[in-house]
Design goal:
heterodimer; A: 244 residues; alpha/beta; Glutaconate Coenzyme A-transferase; nine-stranded mixed beta sheet; three-stranded antiparallel beta sheet; 6 helices; globular; B: 174 residues; seven-stranded mixed beta sheet; three-stranded mixed beta sheet; 12 strands
Chain lengths: 244, 174
Protein backbone atom coordinates (compact mmCIF):
# COMPACT_ATOMS: atom_id res chain seq x y z
CA UNK A 1 0.00 0.00 0.00
CA UNK A 2 1.19 3.53 -0.77
CA UNK A 3 2.28 5.31 2.36
CA UNK A 4 0.46 8.64 2.35
CA UNK A 5 1.82 9.77 5.70
CA UNK A 6 4.60 12.31 5.21
CA UNK A 7 7.18 13.23 7.82
CA UNK A 8 7.80 16.64 6.25
CA UNK A 9 6.37 18.86 3.57
CA UNK A 10 9.19 18.62 1.02
CA UNK A 11 7.56 15.87 -1.03
CA UNK A 12 4.05 17.13 -0.41
CA UNK A 13 4.63 20.64 -1.63
CA UNK A 14 6.99 19.92 -4.52
CA UNK A 15 4.22 20.30 -7.11
CA UNK A 16 2.62 23.45 -5.69
CA UNK A 17 3.94 26.09 -8.04
CA UNK A 18 3.40 29.80 -8.44
CA UNK A 19 -0.04 30.34 -9.96
CA UNK A 20 -1.61 27.16 -8.51
CA UNK A 21 -5.31 26.99 -7.60
CA UNK A 22 -5.55 25.96 -3.97
CA UNK A 23 -8.70 25.10 -2.00
CA UNK A 24 -8.39 25.64 1.72
CA UNK A 25 -10.87 24.21 4.24
CA UNK A 26 -12.21 26.22 7.14
CA UNK A 27 -14.87 28.71 8.17
CA UNK A 28 -13.38 31.76 9.82
CA UNK A 29 -10.42 30.35 11.70
CA UNK A 30 -12.25 27.10 12.56
CA UNK A 31 -11.14 23.97 10.74
CA UNK A 32 -8.17 25.68 9.09
CA UNK A 33 -5.16 23.59 8.08
CA UNK A 34 -2.84 25.94 9.98
CA UNK A 35 0.40 24.12 9.32
CA UNK A 36 -0.28 23.82 5.57
CA UNK A 37 -1.20 27.51 5.29
CA UNK A 38 2.04 28.36 7.04
CA UNK A 39 3.87 26.16 4.55
CA UNK A 40 2.37 28.14 1.62
CA UNK A 41 3.72 31.23 3.34
CA UNK A 42 7.17 29.83 4.15
CA UNK A 43 7.62 28.48 0.62
CA UNK A 44 6.55 31.91 -0.64
CA UNK A 45 4.37 30.45 -3.39
CA UNK A 46 3.16 33.37 -5.47
CA UNK A 47 0.14 34.36 -7.58
CA UNK A 48 -2.01 31.65 -5.98
CA UNK A 49 -5.74 31.50 -6.39
CA UNK A 50 -7.21 30.69 -2.98
CA UNK A 51 -10.65 29.07 -2.86
CA UNK A 52 -12.21 29.12 0.60
CA UNK A 53 -15.10 30.64 2.48
CA UNK A 54 -13.06 33.40 4.13
CA UNK A 55 -9.48 34.50 3.69
CA UNK A 56 -8.42 34.59 7.34
CA UNK A 57 -8.03 37.75 9.40
CA UNK A 58 -5.48 40.53 9.08
CA UNK A 59 -3.03 38.56 11.21
CA UNK A 60 -4.06 34.93 11.11
CA UNK A 61 -4.94 32.07 8.81
CA UNK A 62 -4.86 32.85 5.09
CA UNK A 63 -4.44 36.55 5.93
CA UNK A 64 -0.66 36.02 6.20
CA UNK A 65 -0.53 35.21 2.46
CA UNK A 66 -2.35 38.44 1.62
CA UNK A 67 0.04 40.44 3.72
CA UNK A 68 2.94 39.28 1.54
CA UNK A 69 0.91 39.71 -1.70
CA UNK A 70 1.06 36.00 -2.53
CA UNK A 71 -2.58 35.87 -3.58
CA UNK A 72 -3.64 36.67 -7.15
CA UNK A 73 -7.32 35.91 -6.62
CA UNK A 74 -9.49 34.97 -3.68
CA UNK A 75 -12.63 32.97 -4.45
CA UNK A 76 -15.05 32.91 -1.51
CA UNK A 77 -18.18 34.29 0.10
CA UNK A 78 -17.09 36.64 2.88
CA UNK A 79 -14.23 39.11 3.24
CA UNK A 80 -15.79 41.18 6.04
CA UNK A 81 -13.44 39.86 8.72
CA UNK A 82 -10.36 40.99 6.84
CA UNK A 83 -9.97 44.73 6.27
CA UNK A 84 -6.61 44.22 4.54
CA UNK A 85 -8.23 42.06 1.87
CA UNK A 86 -11.08 44.54 1.37
CA UNK A 87 -8.57 47.34 0.94
CA UNK A 88 -6.35 45.35 -1.41
CA UNK A 89 -9.44 44.42 -3.44
CA UNK A 90 -10.80 47.91 -3.99
CA UNK A 91 -7.34 49.27 -4.82
CA UNK A 92 -6.64 46.64 -7.47
CA UNK A 93 -3.97 44.64 -5.64
CA UNK A 94 -5.93 41.41 -5.51
CA UNK A 95 -8.87 39.94 -7.44
CA UNK A 96 -11.87 38.72 -5.46
CA UNK A 97 -14.57 36.45 -6.85
CA UNK A 98 -17.48 36.66 -4.44
CA UNK A 99 -19.88 33.72 -4.49
CA UNK A 100 -22.89 33.08 -2.21
CA UNK A 101 -21.74 30.66 0.48
CA UNK A 102 -24.13 27.87 -0.45
CA UNK A 103 -23.38 28.23 -4.15
CA UNK A 104 -19.67 28.01 -3.31
CA UNK A 105 -20.20 24.82 -1.30
CA UNK A 106 -22.35 23.30 -4.06
CA UNK A 107 -19.90 24.32 -6.81
CA UNK A 108 -17.17 22.46 -4.92
CA UNK A 109 -19.43 19.47 -4.25
CA UNK A 110 -20.28 19.29 -7.97
CA UNK A 111 -16.63 19.77 -8.92
CA UNK A 112 -15.83 16.61 -7.01
CA UNK A 113 -18.84 14.62 -8.26
CA UNK A 114 -18.60 14.93 -12.04
CA UNK A 115 -21.38 17.54 -12.33
CA UNK A 116 -20.11 20.41 -14.51
CA UNK A 117 -22.84 22.91 -13.55
CA UNK A 118 -26.18 23.20 -11.79
CA UNK A 119 -29.17 25.56 -11.76
CA UNK A 120 -29.77 27.57 -8.60
CA UNK A 121 -32.30 30.20 -7.51
CA UNK A 122 -29.66 32.02 -5.45
CA UNK A 123 -28.57 35.44 -6.70
CA UNK A 124 -31.18 35.81 -9.46
CA UNK A 125 -31.12 39.37 -10.90
CA UNK A 126 -28.37 40.39 -8.45
CA UNK A 127 -24.75 41.17 -9.36
CA UNK A 128 -24.06 37.42 -9.05
CA UNK A 129 -26.38 36.94 -12.04
CA UNK A 130 -25.61 40.01 -14.15
CA UNK A 131 -21.92 40.62 -13.43
CA UNK A 132 -19.97 40.88 -10.18
CA UNK A 133 -16.91 43.13 -9.83
CA UNK A 134 -13.79 40.92 -9.72
CA UNK A 135 -11.05 43.48 -10.21
CA UNK A 136 -10.70 47.20 -9.50
CA UNK A 137 -7.91 49.52 -10.63
CA UNK A 138 -5.85 51.68 -8.29
CA UNK A 139 -8.48 54.40 -8.45
CA UNK A 140 -11.22 52.02 -7.35
CA UNK A 141 -12.89 51.66 -10.76
CA UNK A 142 -14.17 48.18 -11.72
CA UNK A 143 -12.09 46.82 -14.59
CA UNK A 144 -13.18 43.16 -14.57
CA UNK A 145 -16.60 41.62 -13.94
CA UNK A 146 -17.92 38.06 -13.90
CA UNK A 147 -19.81 36.98 -17.04
CA UNK A 148 -23.63 37.15 -16.95
CA UNK A 149 -25.17 33.78 -16.03
CA UNK A 150 -27.26 31.57 -18.30
CA UNK A 151 -30.87 31.10 -17.15
CA UNK A 152 -33.53 28.46 -17.39
CA UNK A 153 -37.12 28.22 -16.20
CA UNK A 154 -38.35 25.19 -14.26
CA UNK A 155 -41.98 25.04 -13.02
CA UNK A 156 -42.40 28.78 -13.77
CA UNK A 157 -39.39 29.74 -11.63
CA UNK A 158 -36.20 31.18 -13.10
CA UNK A 159 -32.82 29.71 -12.12
CA UNK A 160 -29.25 30.68 -12.94
CA UNK A 161 -26.53 28.33 -14.12
CA UNK A 162 -23.63 27.95 -11.69
CA UNK A 163 -20.50 26.14 -12.86
CA UNK A 164 -18.58 23.66 -10.71
CA UNK A 165 -15.21 24.54 -9.19
CA UNK A 166 -12.10 22.37 -9.10
CA UNK A 167 -8.59 23.07 -7.88
CA UNK A 168 -5.03 21.83 -8.29
CA UNK A 169 -4.67 21.28 -4.54
CA UNK A 170 -6.89 21.04 -1.50
CA UNK A 171 -5.51 21.76 1.96
CA UNK A 172 -7.69 20.00 4.52
CA UNK A 173 -7.92 19.88 8.29
CA UNK A 174 -9.22 16.77 10.02
CA UNK A 175 -9.60 15.64 13.61
CA UNK A 176 -8.71 12.03 12.95
CA UNK A 177 -7.10 10.35 9.97
CA UNK A 178 -5.94 6.78 9.45
CA UNK A 179 -3.00 5.79 7.24
CA UNK A 180 -5.27 5.36 4.19
CA UNK A 181 -6.68 8.86 4.65
CA UNK A 182 -10.12 8.02 6.05
CA UNK A 183 -11.20 11.18 7.84
CA UNK A 184 -13.30 12.19 10.82
CA UNK A 185 -13.94 15.87 11.38
CA UNK A 186 -14.89 17.51 14.67
CA UNK A 187 -17.95 19.69 15.31
CA UNK A 188 -18.17 22.83 13.13
CA UNK A 189 -14.52 22.45 12.08
CA UNK A 190 -16.02 20.19 9.37
CA UNK A 191 -17.50 23.04 7.26
CA UNK A 192 -16.04 23.07 3.72
CA UNK A 193 -13.42 20.38 4.39
CA UNK A 194 -15.29 17.20 3.27
CA UNK A 195 -16.38 18.51 -0.14
CA UNK A 196 -12.98 20.08 -0.80
CA UNK A 197 -11.41 16.62 -0.37
CA UNK A 198 -13.28 15.54 -3.50
CA UNK A 199 -12.60 18.47 -5.83
CA UNK A 200 -8.82 18.81 -6.21
CA UNK A 201 -6.18 16.92 -8.15
CA UNK A 202 -4.01 16.56 -5.08
CA UNK A 203 -5.43 16.49 -1.56
CA UNK A 204 -3.25 17.13 1.48
CA UNK A 205 -4.66 16.50 4.95
CA UNK A 206 -3.36 18.00 8.14
CA UNK A 207 -4.66 15.90 11.00
CA UNK A 208 -4.72 16.36 14.74
CA UNK A 209 -4.74 12.64 15.38
CA UNK A 210 -3.10 10.07 13.16
CA UNK A 211 -4.38 6.54 13.77
CA UNK A 212 -3.70 3.09 12.31
CA UNK A 213 -5.83 1.56 9.59
CA UNK A 214 -8.71 -0.25 11.25
CA UNK A 215 -8.80 2.04 14.26
CA UNK A 216 -11.67 4.15 12.92
CA UNK A 217 -15.21 2.76 12.97
CA UNK A 218 -16.21 2.62 9.25
CA UNK A 219 -19.68 3.85 10.23
CA UNK A 220 -18.21 7.02 11.71
CA UNK A 221 -15.92 7.99 8.81
CA UNK A 222 -16.96 11.25 7.14
CA UNK A 223 -14.70 11.07 4.08
CA UNK A 224 -13.21 7.98 2.48
CA UNK A 225 -9.44 7.75 2.16
CA UNK A 226 -9.70 7.27 -1.60
CA UNK A 227 -9.72 11.05 -2.05
CA UNK A 228 -6.57 11.68 -0.03
CA UNK A 229 -3.01 11.87 -1.40
CA UNK A 230 -0.88 13.09 1.50
CA UNK A 231 -1.22 13.11 5.28
CA UNK A 232 0.65 15.37 7.65
CA UNK A 233 0.37 15.02 11.41
CA UNK A 234 0.01 18.22 13.42
CA UNK A 235 -0.91 17.71 17.06
CA UNK A 236 -0.13 21.31 17.91
CA UNK A 237 -2.82 23.37 16.16
CA UNK A 238 -3.19 26.80 17.72
CA UNK A 239 -6.94 26.82 17.00
CA UNK A 240 -7.52 30.53 17.28
CA UNK A 241 -10.93 32.01 18.08
CA UNK A 242 -11.85 34.92 15.80
CA UNK A 243 -14.68 36.54 17.77
CA UNK A 244 -14.79 36.26 21.52
CA UNK B 1 -33.88 55.14 27.54
CA UNK B 2 -35.70 52.37 25.77
CA UNK B 3 -33.42 49.81 24.19
CA UNK B 4 -34.53 49.65 20.57
CA UNK B 5 -32.62 46.43 19.90
CA UNK B 6 -34.62 44.64 22.61
CA UNK B 7 -37.92 45.95 21.26
CA UNK B 8 -37.10 44.80 17.73
CA UNK B 9 -35.77 41.44 18.90
CA UNK B 10 -38.79 40.86 21.14
CA UNK B 11 -41.20 41.65 18.33
CA UNK B 12 -39.38 39.30 15.95
CA UNK B 13 -39.43 36.52 18.56
CA UNK B 14 -43.27 36.63 18.49
CA UNK B 15 -43.16 35.34 14.90
CA UNK B 16 -41.55 32.08 15.99
CA UNK B 17 -43.70 29.05 16.69
CA UNK B 18 -42.80 26.21 19.02
CA UNK B 19 -40.62 23.61 17.32
CA UNK B 20 -39.47 25.77 14.42
CA UNK B 21 -36.07 25.60 12.73
CA UNK B 22 -34.58 29.10 12.79
CA UNK B 23 -31.47 30.70 11.33
CA UNK B 24 -30.36 33.94 12.99
CA UNK B 25 -28.08 36.31 11.12
CA UNK B 26 -25.06 38.10 12.55
CA UNK B 27 -25.62 41.25 14.66
CA UNK B 28 -29.08 42.42 15.71
CA UNK B 29 -30.85 39.10 14.89
CA UNK B 30 -28.79 37.21 17.49
CA UNK B 31 -30.66 39.17 20.19
CA UNK B 32 -33.89 37.36 19.28
CA UNK B 33 -32.61 34.38 21.29
CA UNK B 34 -33.08 36.34 24.52
CA UNK B 35 -36.84 36.65 23.93
CA UNK B 36 -37.83 33.09 23.02
CA UNK B 37 -40.41 31.81 25.55
CA UNK B 38 -38.78 29.22 27.86
CA UNK B 39 -41.56 26.75 27.09
CA UNK B 40 -40.57 26.72 23.40
CA UNK B 41 -38.18 24.36 21.71
CA UNK B 42 -36.55 26.32 18.91
CA UNK B 43 -33.85 24.61 16.86
CA UNK B 44 -31.23 27.19 15.97
CA UNK B 45 -29.42 26.54 12.71
CA UNK B 46 -26.09 28.08 11.83
CA UNK B 47 -25.03 27.81 8.21
CA UNK B 48 -21.45 26.79 9.00
CA UNK B 49 -22.84 23.38 9.96
CA UNK B 50 -24.82 23.00 13.18
CA UNK B 51 -28.45 22.56 14.16
CA UNK B 52 -29.28 22.90 17.84
CA UNK B 53 -26.85 25.54 18.99
CA UNK B 54 -27.11 27.72 22.06
CA UNK B 55 -25.10 30.53 23.55
CA UNK B 56 -21.97 29.54 25.43
CA UNK B 57 -22.81 29.74 29.13
CA UNK B 58 -19.60 28.27 30.53
CA UNK B 59 -16.40 30.06 29.47
CA UNK B 60 -14.32 27.07 30.54
CA UNK B 61 -16.00 24.97 27.81
CA UNK B 62 -14.84 27.31 25.03
CA UNK B 63 -13.99 25.23 21.95
CA UNK B 64 -12.47 26.68 18.74
CA UNK B 65 -14.03 23.77 16.81
CA UNK B 66 -17.53 24.89 17.81
CA UNK B 67 -18.50 28.29 16.43
CA UNK B 68 -21.53 29.92 14.82
CA UNK B 69 -21.66 31.82 11.52
CA UNK B 70 -20.63 34.98 13.40
CA UNK B 71 -17.44 33.09 14.37
CA UNK B 72 -18.41 33.22 18.05
CA UNK B 73 -17.76 30.19 20.24
CA UNK B 74 -21.06 28.51 21.08
CA UNK B 75 -22.51 25.46 22.77
CA UNK B 76 -25.08 22.87 21.72
CA UNK B 77 -28.33 21.48 23.10
CA UNK B 78 -29.19 17.77 23.42
CA UNK B 79 -30.31 16.56 19.99
CA UNK B 80 -27.99 18.84 18.08
CA UNK B 81 -26.17 17.72 14.95
CA UNK B 82 -23.20 18.76 12.83
CA UNK B 83 -22.93 18.67 9.04
CA UNK B 84 -20.82 20.07 6.21
CA UNK B 85 -21.36 23.47 4.59
CA UNK B 86 -22.71 21.80 1.44
CA UNK B 87 -25.32 19.89 3.48
CA UNK B 88 -26.13 22.99 5.51
CA UNK B 89 -26.96 24.97 2.39
CA UNK B 90 -28.92 22.06 0.92
CA UNK B 91 -31.08 22.42 4.03
CA UNK B 92 -31.43 26.13 3.29
CA UNK B 93 -31.96 25.98 -0.49
CA UNK B 94 -34.18 22.92 -0.09
CA UNK B 95 -36.65 24.91 2.05
CA UNK B 96 -36.03 22.94 5.24
CA UNK B 97 -35.42 26.05 7.36
CA UNK B 98 -38.66 27.57 8.69
CA UNK B 99 -37.50 31.10 9.46
CA UNK B 100 -34.43 33.19 8.73
CA UNK B 101 -34.02 36.45 10.64
CA UNK B 102 -31.54 38.82 9.00
CA UNK B 103 -30.32 42.35 9.40
CA UNK B 104 -30.31 44.70 6.42
CA UNK B 105 -28.93 48.00 5.18
CA UNK B 106 -32.01 48.70 3.02
CA UNK B 107 -35.38 47.08 2.35
CA UNK B 108 -37.84 48.14 -0.35
CA UNK B 109 -41.65 48.24 -0.24
CA UNK B 110 -41.66 45.08 -2.41
CA UNK B 111 -39.49 43.21 0.07
CA UNK B 112 -36.19 43.58 -1.81
CA UNK B 113 -33.32 43.26 0.65
CA UNK B 114 -29.84 44.83 0.44
CA UNK B 115 -27.33 43.81 3.09
CA UNK B 116 -23.98 42.86 1.62
CA UNK B 117 -22.25 45.76 -0.07
CA UNK B 118 -21.89 49.54 -0.17
CA UNK B 119 -20.15 50.31 -3.47
CA UNK B 120 -16.73 51.97 -3.06
CA UNK B 121 -17.10 51.91 0.71
CA UNK B 122 -17.73 48.53 2.20
CA UNK B 123 -17.41 45.27 0.30
CA UNK B 124 -17.86 42.54 2.85
CA UNK B 125 -19.37 39.81 0.74
CA UNK B 126 -22.74 38.15 0.98
CA UNK B 127 -21.70 35.13 3.03
CA UNK B 128 -24.83 32.99 3.30
CA UNK B 129 -27.34 35.85 3.04
CA UNK B 130 -28.24 35.38 -0.64
CA UNK B 131 -28.82 31.66 -0.08
CA UNK B 132 -30.91 32.31 3.03
CA UNK B 133 -33.25 34.86 1.42
CA UNK B 134 -33.99 32.38 -1.38
CA UNK B 135 -34.19 29.32 0.81
CA UNK B 136 -35.86 29.85 4.17
CA UNK B 137 -39.66 29.52 4.19
CA UNK B 138 -40.09 32.85 5.96
CA UNK B 139 -37.73 35.83 5.87
CA UNK B 140 -37.88 38.38 8.68
CA UNK B 141 -35.76 41.49 8.44
CA UNK B 142 -34.89 43.25 11.69
CA UNK B 143 -33.37 46.71 11.50
CA UNK B 144 -33.49 50.23 12.81
CA UNK B 145 -35.60 52.67 10.83
CA UNK B 146 -32.67 54.92 9.94
CA UNK B 147 -29.02 54.37 9.17
CA UNK B 148 -26.23 55.86 11.31
CA UNK B 149 -26.34 58.81 8.90
CA UNK B 150 -30.07 59.17 9.74
CA UNK B 151 -31.09 58.10 6.23
CA UNK B 152 -34.26 55.99 5.97
CA UNK B 153 -33.60 52.29 5.42
CA UNK B 154 -37.13 51.29 4.40
CA UNK B 155 -37.50 52.65 0.87
CA UNK B 156 -39.68 52.55 -2.22
CA UNK B 157 -36.70 51.12 -4.07
CA UNK B 158 -33.30 50.06 -2.73
CA UNK B 159 -30.23 52.03 -3.80
CA UNK B 160 -27.63 49.45 -2.75
CA UNK B 161 -26.81 46.21 -4.58
CA UNK B 162 -29.55 43.69 -3.83
CA UNK B 163 -29.19 40.48 -1.81
CA UNK B 164 -32.56 39.11 -2.94
CA UNK B 165 -35.59 40.51 -4.75
CA UNK B 166 -39.07 40.33 -3.18
CA UNK B 167 -37.94 38.03 -0.41
CA UNK B 168 -38.74 39.77 2.89
CA UNK B 169 -42.04 38.58 4.40
CA UNK B 170 -41.89 40.83 7.41
CA UNK B 171 -39.91 43.92 8.32
CA UNK B 172 -39.41 44.61 12.00
CA UNK B 173 -38.26 48.12 12.52
CA UNK B 174 -38.17 50.91 15.01
Amino acid sequence: MINKVCQNLIGVFKDIKDGSRVMVGGFGLSGNPEYLIEALYLKNIKRVTIIGNNCGTNYSGLGVLLKRKQVKRFVGSFIGGNSMLTKQFITGQVEVELIPQGSLAEKIRCGGSGIPAFYSPVGLNTLIDIGMPIKYNLAGVVIKKSAPKDRKTFSKNIYILEEAIKADFALIKSYQCDNFGNLIFRKTARNFNPEMCTAANSVIVETENEVKIGDLDPDKIHISGLYINYIINNKNSRKLIENK
Amino acid sequence: MVNSINIIAKRASKELTNGSIVNLGIGLPTNVVNHIPPSYTIWLHSENGVLGMKQLDDESKKDADLINAGKQVISTVPGSSFFSSATSFSMIRGKHIDVAILGAMEVSQDGDVANWMIPNKKVQGMGGAMDLVHGAKKIIIVMRHCSKAQEPKLLRKCNLPITGYQCANLVNRI
